[in-house]
Write a structure and sequence with these properties.
The complex is a heterodimer of chains A (433) and B (589). Chain A is α/β, with parallel strands linked by helices. Helices cover 33% and strands 23% of the residues of chain A. Chain A folds into 3 domains: 3-73, Thrombin, subunit H (Beta Barrel), CATH 2.40.10.170; 76-334, Rossmann fold; 343-427, no CATH class. In chain A, the strands form 4 sheets. In chain A, strands 9, 13, 14, 15, 16, 17, 18, 19, 20 and 21 form a 10-stranded mixed β-sheet that branches. Chain A has a 7-stranded antiparallel β-sheet with strand order 1-7-4-5-6-3-2, with no helix packed on it. The chains are: A alpha/beta (433), B alpha+beta (589). The interface between A and B is large, with 64 and 68 residues. The complex binds adenosine-5'-diphosphate and magnesium ion (MG). Adenosine-5'-diphosphate (ADP) binds next to α3 of chain B.
Chain lengths: 433, 589
């Protein structure tokens, strides 16, 4: 039995300091306050002073509360019994299922040796033209959806998850509204996908610090199954809440903030999670899709900014649509040459023309005269938004490419779109006469 | 060395910083190991106060307890220098990652270290000097072939004063640890082997003098070599927001730059990006040597999820290896992606040390460290009269893409060229997205300054007119201005922009640059007969297409000449007859 400690010397924010000996850095403890027990983790050692972040918060903890050290760092039971289950951020069942205790593995484990990585190679089909055609998603990619509150980013995540052919879905919810949690659960259930899903859910009403564990729990489990050969899709929503929890702890620990109160290691903290995305040469893979809400709709805010430097592109979700500009899949070129001969050309041409359309719109709004070319562009832009950008559209890549050609043919002459002539000869729809 | 290891005891842990009580002596920047049940964690002393030392640990610190033992080694953080560094992939502490993978499997394992060089491989030793000769630090005593190079085996850089060679081993196969020569200085006798150790944070200065970097380093990127050149031994930086193309640009440089050795320092960025180099370079031919690109490359890879203190070290590990090859009279290019991650590692440590922070919490000494790093670039004359160089190019990742931040600003103060990547140009897919009006270089490039000034003026004017047009519209712009604007756009799209993925366009030799630039300038100087704006637009579109097609042809091929005739015909057909169709281009100076 581990020793109990009663001498809590300091309680500040969600961090307590207790006097104890022989404690390991990163070790877990149980803190028993008047409001029940909470897990806590050692975040600083200084002589015999041990500082712990208390996941359920410090409310109700007194100087005489009991602290029991557990002798190990945070762990999760990596077993098949996880499938179909819902847990809190620290792994306590949220459903009525049993507590799992088998095969406990450490979370936040080491990185994959870069020498063991391979170049990603498999496209994930989503049925969403803005993704499949213009910014293909690739197995093992890490990609956030940059958005603001009110946008349907959770719906988008859920939809991609339902469409993607993966073996396992791990959902990590951070500060999730209860309704959103129910939405995810119901969607999984409706599609019969709950049995191949594992949920770690921290809701908006749970103590904020508890959400710090969610990415590591989700990714440790994902890694376990990926190593065993499964293709795992991890959904994380909303990573901005995770960053805000980091900020809170940093401020409590009196760390000097680097930018708008966020700690100087925000980049490393985020990278440690996102870099878990991987394609194992002879086993499975981890793909990470995250929601990142941008405070003040500002992409230069430290959270989206640091995220963008880490992830392999980003989708901007604006006004319920994936914005063609700024959205980027850095891995698209690994896969879009092997889909269909016209894929890259359709992608480049349609985007270029849509950019010209936006310029025409701008000119129009300033009252300048519209040329014949402008008029063509105006017609094209409307069709593009309706057929490609609307998230209601759900068609396979090949159909989307065909639709792309049809749209071009409806609006322009072959010579006007600046495509290679051999492609035009092959794909340009013949006029029905 | 005394051989007696000194010990200390852990008294505190804060992130990757461990405080240690000691009762003997401790040296700043010496290497220490925290001893745990599951291994020894490498660390570096970064502060000593009273009888406590603060260590940055190059590994995750989970599980360390107050009271754990620490061993001090008495040695500074160092790398091993010898034949066999080329083609390797190291982490920030010079552990060879493929070997680690073989020993530890898929995941990195803390506390596991592997000797960086192959100690069993036999190298074909050729002595270059007779016994009795007087030598000093850095002088070659012989060579072994390493790929395409004669790898010089040198008197260790740390040896002081003059030494007399007593013996020199006969030619034949030797391992790096065999003695190739012995030397004495009157007081003692020492063996020389193929390998030596050097502390990474101290520059190697075994040369006669630094000389000015005057020779262009040809990158085969037109916008760089022609407009913002880099010099062998010079420094440059590529700041830009995420997605602007810093990494793609560095990869292009690592492929096409005309240097002997390339060191890629993947510092705190995505692991996946290194994998591309790692998997592709062994199969890509270096057209200049006929061997693979990997043969001239060393990768130092301490990506974003690897321990942050080792990230800090990785920059120094990289530049020290560059200095080693420079000592052989070679031209080395060090590409660091990204120096901001290195600066952030410094910031994290400074925060743990509770130092008084500077701007954005970066340490107050950030500028001097940045300057110290770039100062290790340079062109030098070695003791034997040959010359070698290190060129350093650092990507910078400014927070929010705003260049008014400490790392960009500290870097701009010390580099010789600024290649600023622009979000707008990247969004418009104008790659490489180096901003043609805001970037600058202090070095001389591959074309003459006169014509270059004219070309810059065309860009500037074109841009000014574009700004005007936003206000007054196309209909409010006179035809001559409109044409001037189109000329700027033309220069931008056929010369500044370059398709790095294309075999031919992606790599333009200096010879071809001079040739094409002259032709582009000729078009810019020509006064064209254009009835109205629509005619002007469609003419320049056509001209642009002709030049782009020309860029995609193989240099000096039949296609190349045919396309050239085609575009010359187009220019001639549209040139105004009067006055030879020539315009005098303004000189922007
Ligand atoms: N020169 C280029 N040519 C074509 N595409 C490019 C070029 N530079 C960047 N890109 C595109 O932009 C993406 C991001 O580029 P990258 O170099 O990774 O940006 P950064 O390192 O600045 O974040 C790439 O994945 C690629 O799709
Ligand atoms: Mg990059």
């Amino acid at each position: 039995m581990r020793k109990l400690y009663h001498r809590i010397r300091q309680i500040q924010g969600n961090v307590i300091t207790v006097e104890a000996d022989g404690i390991a850095y990163g070790e877990l403890a149980e803190v028993h306050g008047t409001r029940g027990a909470s897990l806590a983790q050692v975040i600083r050692l200084s002589g015999s002073r041990v500082s712990l972040q208390v996941f359920a918060g410090s409310r109700g903890i007194s100087t005489r509360s009991e602290v029991r050290f557990l002798g190990h760092a945070m762990r999760v039971a990596a077993t098949d019994q996880l499938r179909g289950r819902v847990f809190t951020g620290n792994g306590t069942p949220r459903d009525r299922g049993p507590v799992l205790k088998d095969n406990l593995i450490a979370i936040g484990g080491p990185s994959v040796n870069p020498a063991n990585r391979i170049i990603p190679r498999n496209m994930i089909r989503t049925g969403i033209p803005m993704i499949d055609v213009f910014n293909s998603l690739v197995e093992s990619q890490k990609l956030p959806i940059f958005s603001v509150a009110g946008e349907p980013y959770n719906e988008l995540l859920a939809r991609i998850a339902m469409q993607a052919e993966v073996d396992l879905i791990v959902l990590g919810g951070m500060g999730l509204k209860y309704d959103d949690y129910l939405f995810f659960r119901n969607t999984l259930e409706e599609h019969g996908a709950l049995s191949r899903s594992i949920l770690f859910i921290h809701t908006a009403s749970d103590p904020i610090v508890e959400c710090l564990l969610v990415p590591d729990m989700s990714l440790a489990v994902a890694e376990h199954f990926a190593v065993a050969g499964e293709r795992v899709l991890v959904l994380l929503s909303d990573m901005t809440n995770f960053c805000d929890a980091l900020k809170e702890i940093a401020i409590t620990m009196e760390q000097i903030p680097s930018n708008r109160g966020y700690p100087g290691d925000l980049y490393s903290q985020l990278a440690a999670r996102y870099e878990k995305a991987v394609d194992f040469e002879t086993a499975g893979s981890i793909t990470i899709l995250a929601a990142t809400t941008m405070p003040g709709d500002d992409v230069t805010h430290p959270v989206p900014d640091n995220t963008g430097y880490i992830t392999e592109g980003q989708f901007y979700l604006v006004g319920g649509r994936i914005e063609p500009f700024g959205s980027l899949s850095r891995l698209k070129q690994q896969v879009n040459s092997d889909t269909r001969a016209d894929h890259r050309a359709v992608m480049d041409t349609m985007i270029r023309l849509y950019a010209e359309y936006r310029e025409s719109i701008e000119k129009q709004s300033m009252g300048f005269r519209m040329s014949a070319w402008d008029e063509k562009l105006l017609g094209y832009g409307g069709l593009f938004e309706e057929r490609m950008m609307d998230l209601g559209v759900n068609i396979p890549l090949e159909e989307a490419l065909d639709l792309g050609w049809r749209t071009l043919a409806e609006c322009f002459e072959p010579g006007e779109v600046g495509m290679k002539s051999n492609l035009v000869a092959q794909f340009w729809p013949k006029k029905a006469s | 060395m005394s051989g007696k290891t000194k010990h200390g005891t852990v008294v505190g842990v804060n992130g990757n910083m461990v405080s240690v009580a000691f009762d003997t002596s401790v040296m700043q920047n010496e290497v220490a190991y925290v001893v745990l049940d599951d291994g020894r964690l490498k660390s570096e002393v970064i502060r000593v106060r009273g009888d406590e030392a603060d260590l940055q640990v190059f590994e995750s610190t989970g599980g360390i307890r107050v009271g754990d033992t620490v061993e001090f080694t008495g040695e500074l953080l160092s790398v091993e220098l010898g034949p066999g560094l080329l083609t390797q992939v190291f982490d920030g502490l010079q552990n060879p990652l493929p070997q680690l993978a073989r020993e530890a499997g898929t995941f990195l394992q803390r506390g596991r270290y592997v000797y960086p060089l192959d100690t069993e491989r036999q190298w074909d030793w050729t002595p270059g000097i007779e016994p009795g000769a007087t030598v000093r630090a850095g002088e070659a005593v012989g060579t072994v072939p390493e790929g395409i190079f004669e790898h010089r085996i040198m008197v260790p850089f740390s040896w002081q004063g003059e030494w007399t060679l007593k013996t020199v081993t006969e030619a034949g196969p030797l391992t790096i640890r065999d003695t190739v020569a012995t030397a004495e200085n009157g007081a003692e006798e020492r063996p020389i082997t193929m390998v030596q150790t050097w502390p990474v944070k101290i520059p190697i200065t075994a040369y006669r003098e630094k000389v000015l970097p005057t020779e262009p380093l040809v990158t085969r990127l037109r916008i760089i070599d022609t407009f913002f050149p880099i010099a062998k031994g010079g420094t440059f930086c590529t700041p830009g927001p995420f997605g602007a193309g810093k990494t793609v640009l560095q990869h292009a440089l690592s492929r096409h730059a005309e240097v002997d050795v390339v060191i890629v320092a993947a510092c705190g960025e995505r692991a996946g990006e290194v994998v591309e180099i790692l998997r592709e370079f062994p199969h890509l031919e270096d057209p200049r040597t006929g061997r693979t690109l990997m043969d001239r490359t060393i990768i130092v890879c301490n990506t974003s999820s690897m321990p942050v203190a080792a990230r800090e070290a990785s920059i120094y590990t990289s530049v020290t290896m560059a200095e080693y090859y420079r000592q052989m009279g070679l031209d080395c290019l060090l590409l660091a992606d990204s120096t901001s991650r290195w600066a952030q590692a410094l910031r994290e440590m400074s925060g743990r040390l509770e130092e008084i922070p500077g701007e954005e919490a970066f340490p107050a000494y950030l500028e001097s460290l940045v300057a110290g790093f770039y100062e290790r670039a340079g062109r030098v004359e070695l003791h034997d009269g040959t010359r070698g160089s290190i060129t350093i190019g650092g990507a910078v990742s400014p927070a929010g893409g705003n260049f008014e931040e400490p790392v960009t600003q500290a870097t701009l103060k010390v580099v010789g060229a600024f290649l600023g990547l622009s979000r707008d140009r990247a969004n418009a897919r104008r790659y490489p997205a180096i901003h043609p009006l805001e970037s600058w270089s202090k070095y001389t490039g591959v074309v003459d300054p006169g014509p270059l000034r004219q070309a810059r003026q065309v860009l500037r004017q074109g841009n000014e007119i574009a700004q005007m047009m936003k206000v007054v519209g196309e209909e409010g712009t006179p035809l001559t201005d409109f044409v001037q604007h189109l000329k700027g756009e033309f220069l931008d799209s056929v010369y500044l922009q370059q398709d790095l993925l294309d075999e031919a366009d992606g790599s333009t030799t200096s010879e071809r640059q001079e040739y094409v630039f002259a032709k582009v300038l000729e078009a810019l100087r020509t006064r064209f007969e254009l009835a109205d704006k629509d005619a002007a637009r469609s003419f320049f579109l056509q001209l642009r297409q002709h030049f782009i097609d020309w860029n995609f042809t193989v240099w000096d091929s039949e296609d190349f000449r045919q396309q050239e005739r085609k575009l010359e015909a187009l220019i001639a057909a549209t040139a105004a007859a009067e006055g030879g169709g020539r315009e005098r281009l303004e000189d922007g100076a």
